[in-house]
Design a protein that fits this description.
Blueprint: H1 3-15, H2 29-46, E1 59-61, E2 69-75, H3 77-80, H4 91-103, E3 107-111, H5 122-132, E4 138-142, H6 145-149, H7 154-170, E5 174-178, H8 193-214, E6 218-220, H9 227-232, H10 234-237, H11 247-264, E7 284-287, H12 288-297, E8 302-308, E9 313-314, E10 317-323, H13 346-349, E11 369-371
Parallel strand pairs: 2-3, 2-4, 4-5, 5-6
Antiparallel strand pairs: 1-3, 6-8, 7-10, 8-10, 8-11, 9-10
Helix pairs in contact: 1-7, 1-8, 1-12, 4-11, 7-8, 8-12
Amino acid sequence: MGRARRARRIAQTAAYGGGVGVAGLGAIGALSYAVLRIEAALTRRIVGRRFEAPPVDAGRYGAGSGEPIRLVLLGDSTAAGLGVDHPHETIGATVANGVAAFSGRPVEVTNVAVVGAESPGLESQLERALAETPSPDVALLLIGANDVTHRIDRSVAVRHLEMTVRRLRETGAEVVVGTCPDLGAVEPVPQPLRWLARRWTRDLAAAQTVAVVEAGGRAVSIGDMLGAAFTADPKTLFSEDRFHPSAAGYARVAAALLPSVSAALDLFGERTTPTRPSPQRGEGIGPVAKAATLAVAHPGTEVAPAEIAGQARGRQGRWAVLRHRIRPAVPASTADPRPVSHETSPDAAGAASGDTDNSSGRMPSREGTSVR
């Protein structure tokens, strides 16, 4: 079964409240779990020191006139910023400073993310976030890694994520979700666990993307964004525990999320002057499951709701637009200050991973479309 079909099945099962087995792995079976437990135990011995707590990054960022933009963060240790020492080094702080610079307004950050959080814990985080910030302008969620490592049923994880996105949208907030990172890219994790982790996390990320778009949010693929760079320069992009990102690693992830958060807030004027997706960059509009499959293979890709001829759905489900947004350049290493461009080229956009349904690796270009 291709990843697009698996993503649709997981999201549909989540919508109807069912389950597909522990972690949704089915045919992979008990042997894989035995391998997982053994290899995970070995990995815990390899991974370095544990951090006591993430820095507190809640507060006001930037300056300017007007009411502050209210940004709330929910999710796991990545959203919380575990692995860095200073509040300004977290994803929340980096995105807030970027939004403040683009908008000319201050940004007020509320961060309720919890280290070790799984998707079923998002509802309690949302209650705390809305108690503190009843009407957020935009919410940023990063979740999924612990769902895989703790073997949470994928349909259960996706259902809780979708419900959280829907509730946030009901408050009037824009929602951007950084989908499950590719745990197969974490260097201390040995084989065959790395191969299994890559498959599981990519399947979850694709299903998350389908659910987020169905709920009216935007999904951004995190994927193995730190993988190749970590192999080349592990001391720069990962923290001392060799598992959580360092300040430079978080900056790299924030650089992928910032354009989507800014677009959600309409800081680029896309609502008044819509821009068509660029086929030359591998962008386009198509079924959400196919867009999700392409996105997980290309970190930094955004998938958002779209319409064709005024219709939100086609025969294969919800329409979605896939974009490779230009992201701020982030130095690959503190020893090499030259900026690295993260813009996806048309060739890179067309190089889909092994089990995509789309042989060209591109979304189709369609006329008569509108993008939300």
